């Protein structure tokens, strides 16, 4: 890693394969690997390549730009584009791909996309209780009528759960499944039969096997992270205590400077931290610009030579200070683990999320795209 000056992210191929196999062991349908938002911070290009190597049959993304990255690597794999497409008429050359599955809410979008030659596959979004994108109630009837009148073909129909990972009691999610099935029946009454149905993401795929339909969209847990502690507990309550996930991401850097400070020295901006004993301070070249949450200031740890080193003082834009007084051998060039395991110690995305009052999704997706992602093992 000598050529990497600041920090780097390591992606474990072995752990990724294990996570895929965990899902394949419980799924009743095909798996769509969700690689949106730079593959949840893991690096979309290396993750596309890993998915293809592992025989994933379909990739899901948020945007046209992400779909184009997939196409540069594989010219045929089906790509599910889930984000709302603005001004599709301006993207005709890109979107004229019969292996693009495009989720839409507005019939105007479907009119434009269906006019392309070749046309992408169209998947109608149903709002079953998320209150975000999609159609419901009378609006759904109107949309289906408009599509039928215009002679527009549908290949798929989909929805998204609102709160599966937030609760132990899943009454609302079960209601959403019922709403979705009613929407599918309504679509059939308009002549849209044998549609590809998809509703489940990571948490719901673990918990609602009867809603796997034709494909499931696996995102956060593809990367070895649980959607929430509630999801893990809910799965245990079903009797499945053998489902395993392994985080595939480690984020590392190196010490670039070491200083010894006497007791009562102030460290960092605002002089918010004062040493209480003679302190050996290590500087690492990672800060909030790189994606390290500033709320970890004097409130987090990194790992140095297998030991925990406390973050002291305010996290800077491109630097962070660590107390390595108790870490023999810590010096310039020593590897520092920001997220991951070093010996018997570990710092997880969940640990950081807990300390910064957020979710593991945000912790990993905020890691700067400028940081290299490297596939290991």
Automatic annotation (TrEMBL):
Pathway membership: Amino-acid biosynthesis; D-alanine biosynthesis; D-alanine from L-alanine: step 1/1
Alphabetical list of Gene3D superfamilies matching this protein: Alanine racemase, Lyase, Ornithine Decarboxylase, Chain A, domain 1
One of the GO biological process terms: D-alanine biosynthetic process
Binding site for substrate: 132, 317
Cofactor(s) recorded in Swiss-Prot or TrEMBL: pyridoxal 5'-phosphate
EC main group: isomerase
Modified-residue entries (N6-(pyridoxal phosphate)lysine), positions: 36
Active site: 36, 269
One function term, GO molecular function aspect: pyridoxal phosphate binding
Signal peptide range in chain numbering: none
E.C. number: 5.1.1.1
Reactions the enzyme catalyzes: L-alanine = D-alanine
Family annotation (Pfam families): Ala_racemase_C (PF00842), Ala_racemase_N (PF01168)
Domain Alanine racemase C-terminal: 248-376
UniProt keyword list: Isomerase, Pyridoxal phosphate
Matches recorded under SUPFAM superfamilies: Alanine racemase C-terminal domain-like, PLP-binding barrel
GO cellular component: cytosol
UniProt function note: Catalyzes the interconversion of L-alanine and D-alanine. May also act on other amino acids.
NCBIfam families per UniProt: alr (TIGR00492)
Family of this protein: Belongs to the alanine racemase family.
Protein name per the record: Alanine racemase
Naturally occurring in which organism (per UniProt): Leptospira weilii serovar Ranarum str. ICFT
Organism taxonomic ancestry: Bacteria, Pseudomonadati, Spirochaetota, Spirochaetia, Leptospirales
């Amino acid at each position: 890693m000598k050529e990497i000056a600041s920090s780097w992210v390591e992606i474990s191929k072995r752990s990724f394969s294990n996570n895929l196999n965990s899902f394949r062991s419980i799924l009743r349908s095909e798996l769509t690997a969700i690689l949106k938002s730079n593959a949840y911070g893991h690096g979309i290009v290396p993750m596309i390549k890993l998915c293809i190597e592992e025989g994933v049959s379909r990739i899901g993304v948020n945007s046209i730009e992400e779909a184009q990255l997939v196409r540069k690597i594989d010219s045929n794999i089906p790509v599910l584009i889930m984000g709302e497409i603005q001004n599709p008429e301006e993207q005709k050359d890109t979107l004229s791909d019969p292996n693009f599955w495009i989720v839409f809410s507005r019939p105007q979008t479907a009119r434009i996309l269906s006019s392309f030659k070749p046309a992408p596959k169209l998947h109608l979004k149903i709002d079953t209780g998320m209150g975000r994108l999609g159609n419901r109630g009378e609006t759904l009837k109107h949309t289906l009528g408009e599509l039928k009148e215009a002679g527009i073909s549908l290949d798929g129909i989909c929805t998204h759960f609102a709160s599966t990972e937030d609760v132990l009691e899943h009454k609302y999610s079960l209601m959403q499944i019922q709403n979705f099935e009613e929407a599918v029946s309504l679509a059939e009454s308009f002549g849209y039969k044998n549609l590809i149905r998809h509703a489940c993401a990571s948490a719901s795929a673990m918990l609602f096997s009867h809603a796997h339909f034709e494909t499931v969209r696996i995102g956060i847990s593809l990367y070895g992270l649980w959607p929430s502690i509630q999801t893990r507990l809910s799965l245990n309550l079903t009797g499945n205590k053998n489902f395993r996930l392994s985080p595939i991401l480690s984020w590392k850097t190196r010490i670039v400077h070491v200083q010894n400070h006497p007791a009562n020295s102030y460290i960092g901006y605002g002089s918010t931290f004062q040493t209480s004993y003679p302190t050996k301070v290590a500087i690492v070249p990672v800060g909030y610009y790189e994606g390290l949450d500033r709320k970890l200031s004097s409130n987090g740890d990194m790992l140095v030579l297998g030991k925990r080193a406390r973050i002291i003082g305010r996290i800077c834009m491109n630097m962070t200070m660590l107390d390595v007084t108790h870490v023999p051998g810590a010096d310039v060039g020593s590897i520092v683990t920001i997220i991951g395991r070093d010996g018997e110690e570990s710092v997880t995305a969940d640990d950081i999320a807990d300390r910064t009052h957020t979710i593991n999704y945000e912790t990993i997706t905020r890691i700067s795209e400028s940081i290299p992602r490297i596939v290991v093992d």
